[in-house]
Amino acid sequence: MALLAGDQLGHFEILGPAGAGGMGEVYKARDMRINRLVAIKVVNEDFSSRFEREARAISGLNHPHICTLYDVGPGYLVMEFVQGETLADLLRRGRLPLEAALRYGNDIADALTAAHAKGVIHRDLKPGNVMVNEDKQLKVLDFGLAKLTDSDQEPDSTVTATGAVMGTPAYMAPEQAKGFRADERSDVFALGAVLYEMATGQRAFRGSSQVDVLHAIVHSTPEPTQPPELQWILDKALAKDPGERYQSAREFGIDLHRLLRRVRSNSSVAPQVIAAAPTARSWTTLIAAATAGFAIPVILWFMGVLGKPANTEPALRHETIISRLTTYGGNERSPAISPDGRYFAFVSHHSGTPDIWVRRVSGGEPIRITHDDGQEGDLVYAPSGESIYFTNQGAIWSVGALGGSLRKVIEQGRSPAPSSDGTELAYVGSDGIYIAMAEGAASRKVIHAGAVTHLSWSPDRAWLAHVEGALFDPHQIFVTDRQGRKKRQVTSFAHGAIGGLAWLPDSGRIVFSRNFHRSQFQSYDLAILRVADGNVRRITLNDSGYLYSVRVSRDGARLITATQKMQREVWKVPLDSDPQTNGSRAVRLLDSSWDPMWIHLSRNTLLFNSGASGNRHLWTMPLDGGAAPRQITSSERSDITHASLSPDESRVAYTSFESGSGQIWLRNLDGSNPMQLTRGARVAFWPIW
After folding, report:
1. What's the rounded mean pLDDT across residues 546-567?
2. Is 71 annotated as catalytic?
3. Engineered SS bond to 82: which of 60, 131, 191, 402, CB 3.0-4.6 Å?
């Protein structure tokens, strides 16, 4: 039924056409009783059932971001008139600024949350169904495909009797595209597609035909976008499996709101900067090394699928794909994954103190399960998944997987490694490796060993794998039987440290983290070791940062680790006034491009260690900043580590690996006359005049 300006529909005067919806025409009209502008949607005869459905859906909704239904007449709906343009109109002019995209996405999530709470699923969310008014406020409209979840009057399907898929293909969830049941998570997927389009100006799923688009939705992944935090949110929202998505629009909105706050404060990707304690005497100035670092739990799926991670993530070989799990800020470390791969635990400082938190891998808010001032670490799930072992203040403890009372299991120990049947617990003691009953009783020594750092028990309970290696020595992986009679060294690395290890389900391979570079201070990558012959296959190619604290799910499909990146700077701070004034007068002597470590200073000279020229070497500069830094060591074969200035500022003592092991060397401050002072079998470091 076509209407013209001046026509009347009940007590509504038609002012002119306002657009077309999926079910019929939309007109701008005036309510003659109260002189209010309204929008009237007149139904097409073929869509009477959808019209009735929309009336039922909207009538129960009252939300600032949902178009309000005022009245229902025979064959038409009277709704709030929104003066503005659709989100689709805005996007024709290009992508939106990130803050606007996040704000609109958060508002849509709020609208969906309200609709879902009333049992209403939209099922056709798209930019054309979102109006933005003149005040940049948005309204979600056109619930023509909405389904009332408590209704049993019609089948729950997006496929008609003729086999046509109803809705807009580019924004359908995979389950809708296949004609399966749609639920709240289908709307989450659609919002993810809308958010992607707002942020990039491109549709997430494209094709030359509807069939191509539907195929892309089911099988393809959109090209990554920036910033990484947004990409992680999109990855979760656009997951093909509904179980891997945000489980509610509310969860989606929480993450969007959190990122929006960071963008508005310009801190979305800025790590927290922590000033280290002074390493020099308290004169009138303080030289402080400021270290900005963050550790982030990430999860890898071993699926034989090529992944395309965000630019800030480590590059991977084709066996793995990687996804970041947390964006809480601060330091997050020691991740562990539950045996079924559905939950993960980690230590986080984001509440102010380092505590253990647990969250679903698929998303949601984390649960804090410890509340103390300790330094928890070495997290690992018990095989049942019902509790978590961890270390704190030199002891091994246990806590329920979702919290509860803490129980001390081992009085002195670290690196807990439960047996696969949950009856025993291996751990590292002060002088070797021990096995006790799961509750801590009947502890016995398996082997005597020094400098043991990591421990894991094979799923078949036959072998214990551990790492040995002192500071700056090459770390090696050993295996031993549970009786301690068959200890065997499996690797023979010439250099490099190992940051964690875990057995894979076949009990014949070990995944581990290692520094594959000659320098002790470059990135750590993941590799798989075949125990039978010592073959090592690297599975990540990490240009910078560290991957460590390796844990694997029972089926081996998921591996969780943490990545850490560090930024170091040196600042000169006066101490002759109040803290605020002193801070305002601080001067940066070295920025993060120098990556300074182990600084030492005398009255006039700053000595520091830097990798700016390749390997780590010693540099000096005047404290007044009057001259550029000058390199005083130049060996290309080894690292230089800890160093110390003589009291008269004429010589430098330092640790060098030039002779093959870490020994103390001496040279003049200008770099001349190097001399080796120690020749012991063990590493010597931290010389002090």
Report:
1. 82
2. no
3. 131
Do 240 and 140 share a structural domain?
A: yes
CATH of the domain at 48: 3.30.200.20
Name the 3-class secondary structure at 12.
Answer: strand
pLDDT, one tens digit per residue, over 227-263 is: 877 887 898 899 999 988 999 999 999 989 888 887 8
Instruction: List the single range of 270-279, 330-339, 674-683 with lowest mean pLDDT.
Output: 270-279
Query: pLDDT tens, 206-227?
Result: 988 887 888 889 888 898 888 8
Is there a domain that residue 292 lies in?
A: no
Alpha helix segments (H runs only) across 201-334 = 210-219, 228-237, 249-264
Statement to judge: residues 311 and 431 lie in one domain: yes
Measured at the CA of 239, the angle between CA 130 and CA 359, to 5 degrees, comes to 105
Query: Do 260 and 345 have their domain in common?
Result: no
Exposure string for 359-389, b = 16+ CB within 10 A, e = fewer: bbbbbbebeebbeeebebbbbbbbbebebbb
Quote the CA–CA distance of 4 and 273 in Å, as a whole number.
Answer: 65
Domain encompassing residue 43: 8-80
Is residue 144 in some structural domain? Answer: yes
DSSP 8-state symbol, 594: G
Dist. CA 243–CA 360, nearest whole Å: 11
| Phi-psi region at 276: left, alpha or beta (left = phi > 0; alpha = psi -120 to 50) | beta
Query: Cα–Cα distances in Å, from 37 out to 5, 24, 33, 120, 647?
Result: 14, 19, 11, 27, 85
Closest-CA residue to 609 (of 601, 621, 618, 600): 618
**Claim to verify: residue 480 and residue 530 sit in the same structural domain:** yes
Rounded to a whole number of angstroms, the CA Rg of the chain reads 31
How many domains is the chain partitioned into structurally? 4
Q: Is the pLDDT higher at 263 or at 302?
A: 263
Are 524 and 591 part of one and the same domain?
A: no
566, 590, 621: which is the final residue of a domain? 566
Cα–Cα distance list, 622 to 1, 95, 608, 634 (Å): 86, 50, 11, 20
Which of 124, 183, 235, 595 does the annotation list as catalytic? Answer: 124
Q: Are residues 325 and 422 located together in one domain of the fold?
A: yes
CA nearest 569: which of 533, 597, 527?
597
The answer to whether residue 429 is domain-embedded is yes
- Contact predicate 323/232, CB 8 Å: yes
**Alpha-carbon distance values, 6 to 3, 18, 44, 324, 589 (Å):** 9, 14, 21, 58, 76
- Please say whether the beta carbons of 102 and 245 come within 8 A: no
Looking at residue 312, its pLDDT comes to 39
Question: Is the domain of 415 the same as that of 374?
Answer: yes
Q: Are residues 206 and 120 in the same domain?
A: yes
Per-residue pLDDT, 132 = 94
